[in-house]
Amino acid sequence: xxxxxxxxxxxxxxxxxxxxxxxxxxxxxxxxxxxxxxxxxxxxxxxxxxxxxxxxxxxxxxxxxxxxxxxxxxxxxxxxxxxxxxxxxxxxxxxxxxxxxxxxxxxxxxxxxxxxxxxxxxxxxxxxxxxxxxxxxxxxxxxxxxxxxxxxxxxxxxxxxxxxxxxxxxxxxxxxxxxxxxxxxxxxxxxxxxxxxxxxxxxxxxxxxxxxxxxxxxxxxxxxxxxxxxxxxxxxxxxxxxxxxxxxxxxxxxxxxxxxxxxxxxxxxxxxxxxxxxxxxxxxxxxxxxxxxxxxxxxxxxxxxxxxxxxxxxxxxxxxxxxxxxxxxxxxxxxxxxxxxxxxxxxxxxxxxxxxxxxxxxxxxxxxxxxxxxxxxxxxxxxxxxxxxxxxxxxxxxxxxxxxxxxxxxxxxxxxxxxxxxxxxxxxxxxxxxxxxxxxxxxxxxxxxxxxxxxxxxxxxxxxxxxxxxxxxxxxxxxxxxxxxxxxxxxxxxxxxxxx
Amino acid sequence: xxxxxxxxxxxxxxxxxxxxxxxxxxxxxxxxxxxxxxxxxxxxxxxxxxxxxxxxxxxxxxxxxxxxxxxxxxxxxxxxxxxxxxxxxxxxxxxxxxxxxxxxxxxxxxxxxxxxxxxxxxxxxxxxxxxxxxxxxxxxxxxxxxxxxxxxxxxxxxxxxxxxxxxxxxxxxxxxxxxxxxxxxxxxxxxxxxxxxxxxxxxxxxxxxxxxxxxxxxxxxxxxxxxxxxxxxxxxxxxxxxxxxxxxxxxxxxxxxxxxxxxxxxxxxxxxxxxxxxxxxxxxxxxxxxxxxxxxxxxxxxxxxxxxxxxxxxxxxxxxxxxxxxxxxxxxxxxxxxxxxxxxxxxxxxxxxxxxxxxxxxxxxxxxxxxxxxxxxxxxxxxxxxxxxxxxxxxxxxxxxxxxxxxxxxxxxxxxxxxxxxxxxxxxxxxxxxxxxxxxxxxxxxxxxxxxxxxxxxxxxxxxxxxxxxxxxxxxxxxxxxxxxxxx
Lengths: 500, 488
Hints:
- The complex is a heterodimer of chains A (500) and B (488).
- In chain A, α3 (40-52) packs parallel to α16, α7 packs parallel to α8 and α14 packs parallel to α17 (476-498).
- Chain A is an alpha/beta fold and 500 residues long.
- Chain A is built from 17 helices and 14 strands.
- Chain B is globular.
- With 488 residues, chain B is of the alpha/beta class.
- Chain B has helices spanning 10-14, 22-36, 63-73, 88-97, 114-132, 150-161, 178-185, 205-217, 240-253, 277-284, 288-291, 325-334, 340-350, 360-385, 410-418, 423-435, 462-483, and strands at 47-48, 144-147, 167-173, 189-194, 221-228, 256-260, 294-299, 313-318, 391-392, 401-402, 405-406, 437-438, 440-441, 454-457.
- The chains are: A alpha/beta (500), B alpha/beta (488).
- Chains A and B meet through α1, α2, α4, α7 and α8 of A and α1, α3, α6, α7 and α8 of B.
């Protein structure tokens, strides 16, 4: 661009140019990014929710509340928090309670001990902690990883974060060295990945999960997509895998994981393993879950040199503490000098919120047998797990009875990703509206029933197929009614469109 | 391509954040050795003066907000008799807040709870009407979003504004290095503007214009102007007149103003008052009030609450077109929502106990004690630092820092140059190794070429602060003895 052009722009001679933030000069990467989980459906749901609270407007709608099935937000739908975690959290905020005799009647002994132990290390939860996270809590995480996998972990390579999402963003951002850096992401995927890749000006390289084989991952397909991207000049650096899957709910087989690691070793790909649903595994004998770290370490020399980032979170599992924003990632196989750079990046934001870190500690270091809270904790935990599993089956069965809908069972996580074979007439209608048919369907479902799901186009899907993602989080005592609403809507809707 | 130092994002490698940089990390190592009894240093303890982290230096949290937060963490307690453990108004506040939360562990709206945003809007309205003595109208909750501390708000703003190195962000020199680090990471163009140290870090539009013109000549389009008020590290409080001059200038140049106002409760100078950029802008009326784009940031980390680890804060946007908002709000949406404890803390900070409430007197007493202690230490720091040869600081009118200029002997400068470091970095390193005091070199904040500074907080408890300044005095005296007299 000629200097005079640059100067013109800068001095505002062109009117709309110059500094002010507007639609035509907001960072174009921000304009391109999409995040459907809180996209059009969610926004529309909020508008309706506000109208439902307005006595003048609520009669517009044939339902009295919105049921949010668009987001994995268990406690919004009545899932109870784990008591021990909340007791420890209250105590670290009010340390005076630890010396107060009356308080001892309100809190179990082990919660008070844990709070005391944490405070001795943290000092005060109101202070910025170490930018990587409180050292004691990182030790807890390292011990947890070691016990889970049978391989040692170091607190020095663990980074606590405000939820796992922050970790994903930081990791992917650090791999960008030029505009043609590629990141392999599953189709369908949790759109944090596609949105982040867009924001960092990376290239998304899709690989396809196989709907017809229970959402399994074919390593041949990975190879094909990798080769294709490379032939197009993309430098593919990383492979993102979500296990258990979101939205697919699949749990990778052990062989699958070995094949993935072998590919990473051979093709020099960094592996980012999103493992936030690792405790939402509903068929552990049939389809056990392993961490990528464990499989990597077990394989040893065979896959030497593979670099791995493993993420976990307090938002999912039975803990479900989404609003607290807590999580961590572990770095494996990366030069300590690079880990220092990650520290530097973390330090700019100072530290993850301390109560979120405390929740991580409780998640990875729950009460043990013999502890005062052990029985309560295990009971609460088991109750949530059993209920999630029951609901996963209920929704799977119900969806599969609906015309045109097929749905794989959820082996893990909190979602079903149901395929909808829309009638031809509807597909034409959608085309004439220039909207994805699953989006139109989801909006109509919302406006008829108050149920908010996310259209498959938000996650990516094989061209020409359409899906909706729903959570199975509505509370059990309302679950049948919730499923019933969808059934009723769909029956009428289907009759309308398939008759044309 | 495997991840190595060579293949790491070069923008990260180029980025620095001195507040927790190499000197501070070295202090951590020394501290660990002291704790383990393995180190051999000429001091018994480290005094950390590198970071505005009051509760790590024994500042107590305010009781009332902590009680409410604890009750909201463990709401089952609200069914019990809490009369001997929690104050009744904390119980009442928790009971009133609980139904508004939709599940205490759930993700919230990405911009934060609606009611918390309204709380912020009400506070802003009240504050600016009171400070101006006028009715400036009500702040709009839809233009407010809560964040995990003020830092993410800054990062979102910069991400929206920066589209490559020709996107200029005017940044004060010296500045809090969140700005320089973020601009560097996002590959933006940092456009420095200088404040006049000799006039108490005065800010003039002439300085803004010369900096703006220099950027344009290089092909950079300044898109935004960052102003930190009260200043970090400068400690200066801008007058209403200067703020209005800056806003008029911003309108003429069509730049957005990013007003970092996180220290708005740390006002120590008797003759200075805080006026928000919003107050100044709305006070100017048309055409400025309708045209100048403004983002104003606040936090729970500073002020009197000092709840750094909570990560609570917000930004208010003014005159940002409605059609930009859906794109802009994507950024916080991808991270889902700011942490709930931080959001509650924002509400508690802006809606403290009122006269008649059970905690009002104790809250006010705690608040005033902390405020007075900060004010005393602001005065003490300046007085004691200015008694040290070669060290001179401007008045600490507000915030939490002193940013003294530093003179060192020529031979010391040469030694630093040989070691490949700026002289102030070398000085701060040796201060740590020899006296156990951690401050941050001026080069970490930016300074005029050929000058040196360091930033120290005023936060250690009074007796420690006295010890700290005494150590600095001994160190500097020793430097002068060893390396020769200071030039006039």
